[in-house]
Structure formats: C-alpha cells, structure tokens
Model the fold of this input.
Amino acid sequence: MRVHPGFWAIAALISLQVSPDPLLVLGFAAAVFASILIHEMGHALAFRKCGIRSHVVLYHFGGLAVPDSISSYVGYGKEYSSGSKIFVTAMGPGVQMVSAILLIVLLRGVGKTDGFVTAVVGVPANWTADPIGVLENIDQVNGSLLPYYSIEEFPQRNQKALQVADTNQDGLFTLEELVDYESSINAAGQFDQPFWEKVQKLSKENEYVPREMLEHFTGKAAAALQLADRGAGKLILWSDVKELHMESVQIRNEFLRMFTRGFVQIGLFWGLLNLLPVYPLDGGQITRELFVLSGASDAIVKSLKLSIACGVIAGLAGLRFQMMFVGIMFFMLAYSSYQTLQRMQGRYF
Ligand SMILES: [Zn+2]
Done:
C-alpha cells in the first residue's frame, strides 16, 4: 500500500472546512483516510476473489486498487468478464457504505447520534432511530409545549385578571391557564385583542413542558424530560430539554465525535457520489460494463456521453447546494470525458 502526498493535501483541504480546531480537523482527516482505505480494500478483496493480486494506492481524490502486473490482469482476461469487472468496481463503494452503516448501527446500540444523517442531511430522525428524534416526539404530542408569559409584561389594567387566571401562582401565564380562566368567567372582553396577539408573537424561546404532561411520556421521551427537570415547582424549559438531551446523545470525546461524523459522512456521501455514472468514478466504469453487457454497439461512446451529461448535472447540483468542491470536481470530470470522447471520435481541438 502506498499513500500519495496528494491524498493528504486533499484530505486536509476537505477537513479544514469542517472546523478551525486542529484536533477536529485531525479527527475528520483520519475518518477520510479510514473510509477511503476501506473502499480500496473492498476493490482489492474483490480482485483477489477473481484471482488477481493487487495493491492499494491512495492519491488525490481517493484511491486505486491496482493489479500488480499487467500480465496477471491480461492473463486472467478470459475470466475477467464484464460481470467480474462490475463486481470488483462495486465492491469499493459497497464495502465503504456498509462500513458507514455498521458504524451507525453501533452508535444506535449505545444510544448516540452520528451527527450527520439527521443533523446535516436532514433525514427524519425516526427513520434511522437517531436518538435526537426524541425531541421531535415530545414536540409532536399535542399540548406538550406551551409558550408562557410573565404577568409583569402585561399592562397594569390586565394584571389583576391574569393573577386570578394564574392558577399555580408562579407569576407566569400560559395559554392553557387563560383558556381555563375564560371558560370559567367569560372574561374575554377584558383583554385587548391586538395586544394579546402581539404577546403571542413573543419569542418562541419561552416554551416549556407543563409538569402535568410528564405522565403522558414514557421511555426515552420521559427520560429526556426528567433530565431537564429542575425540581418541584420550577418549569421544565424546552430549551433545557433540547440542550441536555443533545449533550447526552453526542459522543463526549471531541476527536471521536468528529471521527464518527466524518466516517459516516465520507462513507455515505462520497460512497454514493462515487456511484454516479461519471468517469473515472466507479459508477462510470460500472455503467460502461452495463452497456457492454446489454450488447450496445458503441458501449464506450454511450457511457462517455452519459458521463458528460451526469457530470454537468452533478456539477450544477454541487453549486446549487453550495458544495463548491464537489461542483468544480464534477465539471472537471465532465470536461475530461468530453475530451476523451473527442479523441475517440478522431476530432482534435
Ligand atoms: Zn473505487
């Protein structure tokens, strides 16, 4: 195995965007290294399965599992069919993505978030049993989150009525308490409507889970609420619940936290990008072999045209989603496919 210096340059470049903290940059770069190494090991293992010896080189954008000699490559030419080529090519991103999924499963087993699938991509937490989904579950239970207002924030003329409405006498006032009060003495007329609407638009920060709601929750949601419970008489602030729950589901060690996030991110995101039908990515090679298998007359030309089209689309998508690095890379790959196509068709520019 060899690691080309260019690999570290690119790994550092990607990792530097993650954080200014050198420890976190190191954690992310280590994850890039581990994930890409596993990718190339996947290719190398598949080569071996086909009877071809190979070694792994990590360079610029990723790596290569290289057959040890052309003769061994050619020597097995007959057995090295399109099917075997697809197998060898798919094993790289396949093993890489499976390793990321295994890490996610492991993290779920110990009740931790991966910090990427939901936190960065926005996949609904419940789909992957991400423990940060507990917050959504609490949020979705009707009436579990109520805004509260301080009676002192209201004008003098309303305060007296509000004090009566404040059944638990905590100087705070909830919509629930107001509704109870209104239904008991039809006091709606005492409130100045535009003012009340203005109060309702107050900061959403002031949300809390009423103590009475505790009995409606079980399991992880109840545990998350109890974690933020400051004891008798005090409010369970929603901001406390969020903060303390996030703290409890994250990996405490910063380096490990960044490593796991990076490993999942590179494994899933780059693993998937690598399967796009663009040369010289694995997906480009697989597409060519699929064209060959389908019996298309000009399989290589067709795969190059597809590579150009998909490269441009992926480039535009990269820019659209503000991933400059990805966007520029795909435009370069599309252009390089275009040049190859021109050469193959005997036109030189
Ligand atoms: Zn590969």
Remarks:
- The beta strands are 2-3, 54-59, 62-67, 146-150, 172-174, 207-209, 236-237.
- The two ends are 38 Å apart (CA to CA).
- The pocket of zinc ion is lined by residues 39, 43, 92, 282 (CB under 6 Å).
- The chain has three domains: 1-112+262-267, 125-249, 276-349.
